[in-house]
Amino acid sequence: MSEHGPIAETASVFDDDDEGTGRGIIRIASVAALGGLLFGYDSAVINGAVDSIKHDFHVSNGVLGFAVASALLGAAAGAMTAGRIADRIGRLRVMRIAAVLFLISALGTAVAPNLGILIVGRVVGGFGVGVASVIAPAYIAETSPARIRGRLGSLQQLAIVLGIFFSLLVDWLLAEMAGGADDVLALGLEAWRWMFLAMAIPAIVYGVMATTIPESPRYLIMKHKIPEARTILSTLLGETNLEIKIERIRNSLNRETKPSWSDLKRPGGGIWPIVWVGLLLSIFQQAVGINVIFYYSNTLWQAVGFGESASFGISVFTSIVNIASTLIAIALVDRIGRRPLLVFGSAAMIVTLGALAVCFATATGSGDDLKLHGAAGPIALVAANLFVVAFAMSWGPIVWVLLGEMFPNRIRGAGLSLAAAGQWAANWAITVSFPALASFSLGFSYGLYTLFAALSLVFVLRLVRETKGMSLEDMDAQIAADVASS
Questions:
Q1: Mean pLDDT of the residues in the chain
Q2: Which domains does the chain carry?
Q3: Which among 30, 140, 266, 365 is placed 20 to 30 Å from 183, CA to CA?
């Protein structure tokens, strides 16, 4: 049994000239991307509860940072193991398992009697997030025509930002209904606990919807379930060239050795360069500090003079900006390409993060007494939202698209799992370090993120290739040619 199986062999089962059943393909991709909605919800729900957790459990900034980031440790572990699990039990069962983990996390964090139990609940939900973050882009890339693969792959990021929006909106509404996040809302539970409990609803929806889409044809063929695979391919593609497609998949699976982590190593030693590119894409996506905006924005805006209600409102507005910008990226990714959007995003993030660094460098006080004076407050607010626009039009969705398509078939599962785990590890490092950095200097914090944005621009210009309109097999051939000439 292969360690990464269907993910490692993920490739579009469509040729460029296949029309397919467009609505069916979009529906299947949308359901698979629903894991991203829970991903976004689970990631951002902590925003409305940060101050309450700090006050109720009497924790320091360092411990608070670890509690906020604890889900990311589970996510890294989930991402690393997703390929192996999917290989053994199939894609759909993995999606359902992720839904159950989200549900357990919602219940556990809502009734947690102490910080330790809350962290365990966050880690469990994070494991589900990590699994979903690998399964969704792999499944979508596997079942998408090359002509629209970028747009369908971007559905993952759209679902993430929708999850963030719903999470922040629910946080705001619950806090308003209770009179504050610390106040009891119903059943003896404070509003911040209901924020976590509300995640049970999308978890159940995801689990149910995952029963309405077909299993991966590639996985079925690997398991020698040819009639079932043929039925699914016929439903998606019609009757054209089905046997040829099935044979191509079967040939790609019939190898003397099965895919494994060792495939990431070159025969002559070292790691394949494309693996480093994927890993650095993931790290830079998080190193610019995007999740600081969504995890700590309420605390941040309250610190510079906005009230709790206004801070919730600003966070919800920012999430709406995030959604609108992601929709623009989806419209552009298959028209102008991946690389130009990344270049634009890096350049714009340098400017906006630099503005935030300058504004917060002029702040007086610290912690809850932090103050921005004069025009610095409005400028910081505008810069933060423009930073979200820049990220959401580029590095947010485009990295997921590239990770789903850039690796050769042989190492796709291992490469994608490693890159996703690296992304979660970087996310954890940024999130857990922010409270301490903020206590030292917010100007320094945003200056550091500005530096990472500048490095991301150099990285894209030097190492990232355009993949727009290329079939996965064409990319394989190009990489093979590069290896042969090196």
A1: 77
A2: 5-485 (1.20.1250.20)
A3: 365
